[in-house]
Amino acid sequence: MRVCSHQPGSTVPSSDLCKDCSCSSNMDAQTGLYTVICTPKHCNTTCNANETWSPPGDKCVEYTCDSSTSPPTTVESQTTCPEYNPDDCVPDSTRAPMFNTSTLNNSAPIQGTEVTDAKGCCKTCQRSVCEKKTEETTIEVGNCKNLQPVQISYCAGSCGSSSKYSFALNKTMHHCSCCKEATTSEKEVTLTCADGSTRVQRYTSVETCGCEKSVCVKYSRRRR
């Protein structure tokens, strides 16, 4: 059963050119998404050899006319895009912010290193270097410490930030993001105390890191 994440009534691309498909108002109990309903329509199943096209609004789906059959028929192919998060992109300092006067009251994004492929389907960008690192350290709590160094993980690297003046908004626009933990886990280490006793110390270990939008802190230099 096909499902869709759009609102009921929204058009859904169909691999069968002789059917119109859309999101129904019926919800699939397993996925929690709306089911797809298709209705037949009068059409011509043949096509011109070697012809390619995409349905309106969906550049990730492409139909090719297969001339190996008689008569030629359409074959569907779908592009799967790699994982993409715009917060992980480095802003392009060589480009000016693109603002439209119709969006002055909105939060307009700063043009960055984001690019779309030739088909207009997948987006990519120059990724910021924010990654997990590890170092050996000795944990000391009071008069207790671990006898063998442990590997402690942390996040380090740069994320996209920029500050550019917008003539359209008549002010400087700021875009900030920081390198921080994305997922963590709880771990334990045994500490040995000066009196010979032991205790268990829990700590948070970083598993993955990523860039996350943050509030830009205003910095002002004091005059002497």
Automatic annotation (TrEMBL):
<feature type="domain" description="CTCK">
    <location>
        <begin position="122"/>
        <end position="217"/>
    </location>
</feature>
<keyword id="KW-0964">Secreted</keyword>
<dbReference type="InterPro" id="IPR029034">
    <property type="entry name" value="Cystine-knot_cytokine"/>
</dbReference>
<dbReference type="GO" id="GO:0005576">
    <property type="term" value="C:extracellular region"/>
</dbReference>
<dbReference type="InterPro" id="IPR006208">
    <property type="entry name" value="Glyco_hormone_CN"/>
</dbReference>
<feature type="disulfide bond">
    <location>
        <begin position="159"/>
        <end position="211"/>
    </location>
</feature>
<feature type="disulfide bond">
    <location>
        <begin position="144"/>
        <end position="193"/>
    </location>
</feature>
<dbReference type="Pfam" id="PF00007">
    <property type="entry name" value="Cys_knot"/>
</dbReference>
<dbReference type="InterPro" id="IPR006207">
    <property type="entry name" value="Cys_knot_C"/>
</dbReference>
<protein>
    <submittedName>
        <fullName>Intestinal mucin-like protein</fullName>
    </submittedName>
</protein>
<keyword id="KW-1015">Disulfide bond</keyword>
<feature type="disulfide bond">
    <location>
        <begin position="155"/>
        <end position="209"/>
    </location>
</feature>
